Amino acid sequence: MENKKTVVLALGHRALGTTLPEQKIAAQETAKAVADLVETGANVLISHSNAPQIGMIHTALSEFAANHPEYTSCPMSVCSAMSQGYIGYDLQNAIRAELMIRGIYKPVSTVLTQVKVDPYDEAFYEPTKVIGRVLSEEEAAEEEKKGNFVTETEGGFRRIVASPAPQEIVEIDTIRALLAADQIVICCGGGGIPVMEQGVDLKGASAIIEKDLISGLLAREVNADVLMILTSADQVAINYKAANERVLGKISAEEAEEYMKENHFERGKMLPKFEASVEFVRAGKGRRAIITSVPRAKAAYMGKAGTEIQ
User: Fold this and answer.
1) Which residue of 35, 74, 140, 168 sits 20 to 30 Å from the alpha carbon of 61, by its own alpha carbon?
2) DSSP letter at 219?
C-alpha cells in the first residue's frame, strides 16, 4: 500500500441525517470529506452510527407485524443488518460519485459486519439503549412477557436494549483484504451486528454496540495510523457553557484520561469517543485520534483543527 496512512473514519448520526432524504444529502457532504482524505494519499475505512435508521426499521417492522398476525416481529440483529445495507448503499454511491468527479478511480464496498459479544457481559443485565416508538402500558407488558426490557418515558414506555462491549470482528480478514487491495471499505455499521457464538453458529443478540468502541477496535485490528471520529462539534470542550469553558486542541492520552476521570464527558455520548481514542492511541506508536466535524475533517487530519489525542 505504498506506505500510505490508514484512517478509520467513524461517522456519527449528524454525518448521515435521520430520514431517507436527509441521509442522501448528508452522505454527499460526507463523501467530500472522504474524498479529501483520499486525495492526501490515505487509505480509508468507514464505520458509522445507525441510531435513527435502526429505530425506524424496528418501529416499521414491529408495526407491520402488529397489523399482520401472519408475520413475526423482526429481531434487533436483523434490523441492524438492514440498516448496514441501506446506509452503505447511500454512502458507497455518494463516495464513488465524488471520487469520479475528482478524477479518482477507487472501488468502494460495504461489508455486512458481525461483531461477537460476551453473553455474560454485565451490560445485558442493565440495558441502556432506548429504541423504537412510545408504547402503551399494555404493549410494554407484552414486551416484558417476551423477555424484553422497557423503561417509562414521556407519554408511555419504550423498549431498551443492552450495549455490550465488542469482542471480535467476525469479517476482519475480509476487511483487511479489501484494504490491502487499495479499496475504500464501509464496515462495522451501527457498531456491527451483535452476535454470540454457539458452537459453529452465530446467534444475533438483542443489543446495540457503541459505534465509537467498535471503531476503536477496528482501528486497532487494521493497525491504523489515525482514528477520526466525526461528530457535530469542530472541537471538544470541557466545562461546556460554563465561565471556565476550555476548548481542547492537541492533548496527550494521559490528559484525556484525566478528563474522563473528572467526569467531563457524558456517558453514551462523548465519553465512548474518548475511551476509544485513548485505547487506540496507547495500543501502538505514532498513532493519533481526532474528534471533529465533517467540514473540518481534512484540516483536522492535517493537524490544523479538531481535538487531537496523541
Assistant:
1) 168
2) H
Radius of gyration of the chain (CA): 20
* Range list of β-strands (E), the chain: 6-11, 43-48, 108-110, 114-117, 129-135, 149-153, 156-161, 166-169, 184-186, 193-198, 201-204, 226-231, 237-238, 246-247, 250-251, 288-293, 307-309
- Name which of 290, 116, 273 is nearest 205 in CA terms: 116
**Prediction pTM value:** 0.90
Cell of 310: 496523541
What DSSP element (H or E) covers 25?
Answer: helix 20-39
Largest CA distance in the chain: 61
Q: Which residues contact 153 (CB under 8 A, 6 or more apart)?
A: 130, 134
- Summarised one tens digit per residue, pLDDT across range 52-90 is 888 888 888 888 888 898 888 788 889 999 999 999 999
